[in-house]
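Can you please make up a protein's amino acid sequence together with its fold in token form to help me picture the idea?
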Amino acid sequence: MKPLQLNPQFFSIPPSPAGTASTGDVSEASFGEMLKEHLKKVNHLQNTADTAVQDLASGKNEDVHNTMISLEKASVAMQLTMQVRNKVVEAYQEIMRMQV
């Protein structure tokens, strides 16, 4: 069985509004800035999924497939975010256990 490979475009959202500090160069961005940007993307996916469910429930949209795709994108993004958070906390705890 082949390992699952995620396509980065799967989680893409429209570019940030003008005037933000996003330069597109990852090497110049601090960890905090990258974290904020990715949390904004996860939040956007969650909001998109919520809107899709509301539209489906109210009858504005009858496309169940796209609604389910939106929900899965939001779910996978949230799971990935939680796993990254867990790894960061684990690394921090390991550093704190080091003897100086």
